[in-house]
Amino acid sequence: MTPHRPVPSAPYAVPVPGDAPFGTRVALVDATGSLVRAPDLTAVGPFHPDGDGGLVAPAADLAGLWGYLDGRGRWIVGPGLEWAGAFDGSGLSRFRRAGLFGYADVSGAPVVAARFLGAEEFRHGLAVVRTEDGAGYADPTGPGGDRRLRRGRALRTRRAGARTAGGRRGLRVRGPRGAPGDRPAVRRGASVRRGRSGAGADR
After folding, report:
1. What's the CA gap between 164 and 161, in Å, rounded?
2. What is the phi/psi pair of residue 7, to 5°?
3. Count of CB atoms within 10 A of residue 203's CB?
4. Which of 34, 39, 79 has the alpha carbon at shortest distance from 60?
5. For the chain, first and last CA: distance in Å?
6. Are 144 and 165 a contacting pair, CB within 8 Å?
7. How many CB atoms lie within 10 A of CB 52?
8. Which site from 102, 106, 157, 159 is most exposed, i.e. has the minimal number of CB atoms within 10 Å?
9. Cα separation of 70 and 34, whole Å?
């Protein structure tokens, strides 16, 4: 049995006024007021346990690019994303790359590649995602597929009117079976079978 490893206290984000062009910057300090990281950030999200006794948080550099910091203020994934969100209760962080959204785990590694037009946090086991064909619900308890997501369980997306299976990340979009005679259409490496009714909800 692995002994419990206490999670250290998260550093505090402290705004530091600055001159143009950067303006206010963000530094990190610990509970004693000691500097953890110099004020060379423009934003820092909440810290989240990384499952290995440490912490992880999304953060943006002075160029406005996002990555992930550990609890000591060091980059574990360097800035290169357009945006990264706070980790949710499932231990996943939404990120945006090239205008599309995906999900990263607490190591900062993408477990679902950037492929959605919109994506929300997981709540009560589901997350709203949006593709070219409409909106659906991502479910991290689906069978098979990506072994890196939640200890071998795939991300399954259920959406009225479409069924998608494929993609190298094991993403599956499930919905009612297509009408007789429907032909599959290809969307970014995943086969989509259209049903009688489509979902068109936006974020």
Report:
1. 10
2. -85, 130
3. 12
4. 79
5. 43
6. no
7. 11
8. 106
9. 16
- Give me the residue label for tokens 């990340």: 169
Q: 117 in the Ramachandran plot: left (φ > 0), alpha (ψ -120 to 50) or beta?
A: alpha
Quote the CA–CA distance of 70 and 197 in Å, as a whole number: 45
- The structure tokens 């979009």 sit at 173
DSSP 19-45: -TTT-SEEEEE-TTS-EEEEEEEEEE-
Interval 161-182: pLDDT, tens: 333 333 334 344 443 333 333 3
- The residue ranges of the chain whose pLDDT is under 50 are 1, 143-154, 159-203
**In the numeric block, which tokens belong to residue 133?**
């064909």
pTM value?
Answer: 0.69
β-bridge partners, 158: 137, 174
Torsion, Cα of 198, 202, 137, 174 (10° steps)? 20
Structural contact between residues 68 and 85, judged by C-beta atoms closer than 8 angstroms: no
Q: What is the rounded (10 degree) CA torsion for 107, 102, 158, 142?
A: -20
Which tens digits make up the pLDDT trace of 70-80?
999 999 999 99
Instruction: List the chain domain ranges.
Output: 1-84, 88-203
Q: Cα-flanking dihedrals φ and ψ of residue 41, to 5°?
A: -125, 155
